Amino acid sequence: SLNTERHEYDVVVIGAGGAGLRAAIEARQQGKRTAIVCKSLFGKAHTVMAEGGAAAAMGNVNSDDNWMVHFRDTMRGGKFLNNWRMAELHAKEAPDRVWELEAWGALFDRTKDGKISQRNFGGHEYPRLAHVGDRTGLEMIRTLQQRVVALQQEDYETHGDYEAYIKVFAECTVTRLLKDGDAVSGAFGYWRETGNFILFDAPAVVLATGGIGKSYVVTSNSWEYTGDGHALALLAGANLINMEFIQFHPTGMVWPPSVRGILVTESVRGDGGVLRNSEGKRFMFDYVPDVFKDKYATSEEEGDRWYTDQANNRRPPELLPRDEVARAINAEVKAGRGSPQGGVFLDVSTRLPAEEIKKRLPSMYHQFKELADVDITAEPMQVGPTCHYIMGGVEVSADTGAAAVPGLFAAGEVSGGMHGSNRLGGNSLSDLLVFGRRAGAGAAAYVDGLAGRPKVADEAVEAAREEALAPLGRSGENPYEVHHELQRTMNELVGIIRKPDEISEALQVVEKLKERVALVGAAGSRIYNPGWHLAIDLRNMVLVSECVARAALLREESRGGHTRDDFPGMNPEWRRKLLVCSTEDGSVHVEEKVQPRMRDDLIGLFERDELSKYLTDEEMTEFDGIAK
Ligand code: FAD
């Protein structure tokens, strides 16, 4: 069609974060012509912002660590709702993926004897996060991009063209996936700068678009996390699972208002920082739930000793999984024991020497100094929960990343299952590497198995063009207003603590917003027009928000990143159920699906006592049969 440039690839990877880059590298290494498309600048993906590190049971700091311990921690963190096969692959393969990064040039912090150093993080039994100060994501992206360049140099040697096998299309937003019958045949999008359209003919697409945080007001996520991949998958006929589970990171900045939600890394607590309320009390000791009682210190003295002697002490409760800490902070603030700016105090200044703080947490030191005029080596920070990560995403096959639609793959935050109802810190960076690689390989193998190439239908391209252009032609409502209403609604009505009448109210608002989205107008031309781009993104945010709210209304229990005021406990019956979202004619349908039973050798890694806290009686009877 007019004005639409056209490219042909074997594999199109949408997203240039850790998952997308690792997938693209794999597809190229398997001989596939690969495009990397990203809506932000190349190198500006979310992954860059990751601070704490990548979790991998390398056992460098504590040799008792191994994949089985990591697997158990991950399942506990996700409250046993995780796709156990993904958790298994992740725990087994993460060390290799980290060593591979090192071979490609990543410079991790070191132990005294020269191994990759590993730090403590919430929910991880041993020090496990490979890191580079508090800027791990930056080093990860730098290394993966360097690897892409190295492959391009190889291709230049062989083909005389750097971009023969991998080409990056940056500042290019995909708005629709295209299909030939049931199968993927390409992707359609626009250049942000010119507004011109672009079409990819490709039999395989890997979604690696990250999260959905921008549907909430208070979030650690940056502008591009508008749930595009989630929505593209839904609209192409794939399913989303676990959408009710959203991780509210316990520690975001609460002040000044302009930076509210910006992340304060968990490393602050991992390295000794403690949480206090307005009365100066380390309140987390009051919030250790039964399932974790025997694993956490009961006194401040024991918790403090743990930093130097982990064999003989239990960890401090500040390092409980994130959902527990976020709910505790929420409760303290609600009870009137919050800090002046509406959070609680996070103090590292009385816990470590100033020089040590600057060395271990350089970004945090600068962030507070520059944004809030707070010197974290001398005074406490004020922090509160912020929407950080979505556990839910595209339902994929664990081994290949394949979605239900042939030719569609997903990896990283846009995929669902791996983290169950709650993700442990550090498990995302390792997830990106493990499943990015697997999705790239899955896509390559799929392409190899095809008899012929699918075709893009002209009508589908025309429809995608018209859809994208629609807001420009209208003198409708301002997209920013619609966006703010959606963000407020989700924050207030489908936030940390959920009530059924509030969720229903949110769904009514979302229903109305859908109509308003269909009528928003963007002034100006196609040339670099953020209002127009937001108008396009709104379709995705509203769709994804509907999934979150519908699933949240159905799940009548509290687990991980889903807390129901009217059902405060976990219900073993619900552990077996996944809520699967699909869409037809613009509305979202949710169906229950029973999780497959965990393999015997994996279930055998847990003690009976622990399992009995999560499983139904029926499942326990089965377990006893196996144990015999
Ligand atoms: P992203 O890195 O989010 O990349 C998404 C890519 O998709 C981008 O290139 C974007 O431009 C592109 N994209 C999106 N939509 C489109 C579209 N429509 N068309 C084209 N391109 C599109 N996890 C850890 O494990 N350890 C940590 O220490 C840690 N710290 C964090 C700190 C912060 C501040 C934040 C926000 C997150 C942190 N996380 C951490 C979580 C982790 O960083 C993310 O979950 C992870 O980086 C997501 O990676 P990804 O590859 O899935 O996607």
From TrEMBL:
<keyword id="KW-0274">FAD</keyword>
<keyword id="KW-0285">Flavoprotein</keyword>
<feature type="active site" description="Proton acceptor">
    <location>
        <position position="322"/>
    </location>
</feature>
<protein>
    <submittedName>
        <fullName>Fumarate reductase/succinate dehydrogenase flavoprotein subunit</fullName>
    </submittedName>
</protein>
<dbReference type="InterPro" id="IPR030664">
    <property type="entry name" value="SdhA/FrdA/AprA"/>
</dbReference>
<dbReference type="InterPro" id="IPR015939">
    <property type="entry name" value="Fum_Rdtase/Succ_DH_flav-like_C"/>
</dbReference>
<dbReference type="Pfam" id="PF02910">
    <property type="entry name" value="Succ_DH_flav_C"/>
</dbReference>
<dbReference type="InterPro" id="IPR037099">
    <property type="entry name" value="Fum_R/Succ_DH_flav-like_C_sf"/>
</dbReference>
<feature type="domain" description="Fumarate reductase/succinate dehydrogenase flavoprotein-like C-terminal">
    <location>
        <begin position="483"/>
        <end position="591"/>
    </location>
</feature>
<dbReference type="InterPro" id="IPR027477">
    <property type="entry name" value="Succ_DH/fumarate_Rdtase_cat_sf"/>
</dbReference>
<dbReference type="Pfam" id="PF00890">
    <property type="entry name" value="FAD_binding_2"/>
</dbReference>
<dbReference type="GO" id="GO:0033765">
    <property type="term" value="F:steroid dehydrogenase activity, acting on the CH-CH group of donors"/>
</dbReference>
<keyword id="KW-0560">Oxidoreductase</keyword>
<dbReference type="InterPro" id="IPR003953">
    <property type="entry name" value="FAD-dep_OxRdtase_2_FAD-bd"/>
</dbReference>
<feature type="domain" description="FAD-dependent oxidoreductase 2 FAD-binding">
    <location>
        <begin position="10"/>
        <end position="429"/>
    </location>
</feature>
<dbReference type="InterPro" id="IPR036188">
    <property type="entry name" value="FAD/NAD-bd_sf"/>
</dbReference>
